[in-house]
Specification:
Helices cover 48% and strands 6% of the residues.
Length: 205
């Protein structure tokens, strides 16, 4: 491992930092690395390292969110590993809503900030998320892009067209994360073909 000037050369610090760089999930309870983490990042701990704690918090903010129950930890694990957002019709989706929204009974400001930072694609209305899941499913299955004359096709344009190309009231719907997923699965979907004065015009959104 490359020597870092700010990292004090002790076995526990090097071991923890190495784990942080290689893993997105917080060390499991009772593991050696979890003990290192608790000892080096808790302010009231004898081994507290302010610099190391700050460095870890910058790249693994979710590790510092207080997990009061297993549901919150499940949600954090899904978010960190790139999983799909739990829908509100599920127990985890209901829990997510409770932790994320200020009107929720268990609102957690640190949890909300963490979600916004690493999973901005989760921070949209449920109905938009469902439409995006449907569109991604169609794209990955090799189906044709829905016509822009349909509700689904129009939604696709709103999600993938940059703000500078649409009217001001549509800016909120643009989702760069969704667009990247579509580009990876079906780049041809981003080519909009239309005719003008008898000429075929291809526009890439």
């Amino acid at each position: 491992m490359k020597t870092l000037k700010w990292l004090k050369p002790t076995m526990t610090r090097i071991r923890l930092w190495s784990y942080v760089k290689k893993n997105k999930i917080k060390p499991p309870v009772f593991s050696v690395e979890r003990g290192d983490f608790e000892n080096l990042t808790r302010i009231n701990s004898r081994g507290y390292d302010e610099v190391l704690s700050y460095k870890i918090q910058k790249i693994r903010p979710f590790w510092f969110v207080k997990s009061s129950n297993t549901k919150k930890q499940e949600i954090l694990n899904i978010a960190c590993t790139g999983g799909e957002k739990p829908l509100q019709s599920t127990r985890l989706g209901q829990a997510l809503r409770s932790y994320y929204y200020k009107c929720g009974g268990s609102y957690d400001v640190d949890f909300e900030r963490g979600i916004r930072k690493i999973r901005p694609d989760w921070c949209i209305p449920e109905r938009w998320y469902m439409l995006q899941r449907q569109l991604l499913s169609m794209a990955r299955a090799g189906r044709r892009r829905p016509s822009t004359a349909t509700k689904l096709g129009n939604a696709f344009l709103r999600f993938t067209t940059p703000p500078d190309l649409v009217k001001r009231e549509r800016i909120r719907t643009y989702n760069p994360v969704f667009k990247c997923k579509i580009k990876k699965a079906r780049p041809d979907w981003l080519k909009i073909v239309h005719w003008k004065d008898g000429k075929k015009i291809i526009r890439v959104v």
